[in-house]
Design goal:
Subcellular location: Cell membrane
Distance between the termini: 73 Å
Oligomer: single chain
Structural class: mainly alpha
Strand content: under 5%
Number of strands: 3
InterPro entries: GPCR_Rhodpsn, GPCR_Rhodpsn_7TM, Olfact_rcpt
Strand order of the largest sheet: 2-1-3
Protein name: Olfactory receptor 149-like
Radius of gyration: 21 Å
Organism: Canis lupus dingo (dingo)
GO cellular component, one term: plasma membrane
Number of helices: 11
Shape: globular
Order of helices and strands: EHHHEHHHEHHHHH
Length: about 300
Amino acid sequence: MRNASVVTKFILLGIPHTEGLETTLFVLFLSFYIFTLMGNLLILLAIISSTRLHTPMYFFLCQLSVCDIFFPSVSSPKMLFYLSGNSRVISYAGCVSQLFFYHFLGCTECFLYTVMAYDRFVAICYPLRYTVIMSHRVCAILAMGTSFFGCIQATFLTTLTFQLPYCGANEVDYFFCDIPVMLKLACADTSALEMVGFISVGLMPLSCFLLILTSYSCIVCSILQIRSPEGRRRAFSTCSAHLTAILLFFMPVVLIYLQPTPNPWLNATVQVLNNLVTPMLNPLIYSLRNKEVKYSLRKVLQQVAFFPEK
């Protein structure tokens, strides 16, 4: 029988099968985290400081950079704290907060990628009406909508998880509080809730992915109708960065939440890549193939480091 005492704190056991690698992981993850923060802050500064980049596409890219700053900050500080030899204990409220903000920011990014695909669809398929359709008011509504629906989804998933009684074991076999590992600790039947959570977590990304697929199907058809090879190249170049970021975002979601038989070590590895590596790569993806962003970044770096203008 399980202990009847109510759990008030949890112990994060960390990434499975990494005992003795704490120092190596600390240095590696700290490097990823610093590069993630620096890269996304530079993208923000580049877009804000350049009036040429004050367009809907870069407005949404700004919002993505903000999400990519906060998303790894949900789990990384605590993970780095215990990897450096400190306590692995996290309070009940802290665990609730981790799960809520992880799914809030993750869902917001998912909706944001869908909005960014729609923005590219309008820009390429209806270029003459682009400024009318993607007005400042529409952009503001879409941006607030991504956060609003992300909050609703995260609230639902968090309530679903923590309305269960936790009165037994308190060791979380993971590096942060997430739905699958928390359900294992609940002292109640979770089969129905697991199914509801599986449908909820699976349905939202699938719906977004189908909308993105629809947008890009229309975009490809429009690009193929462009007669100029240079025009086709520029159109594909504009969309390639977004498509790369979409694949990096959705592949971990499928591997973590929609696999029939979960593998703890694989899940943790993919989750770390999703939490730290993808947000770190996004600034590179969006800047390396974009001359305007690269030019603005160069100006920002010159101002920050006092480099002389060439």
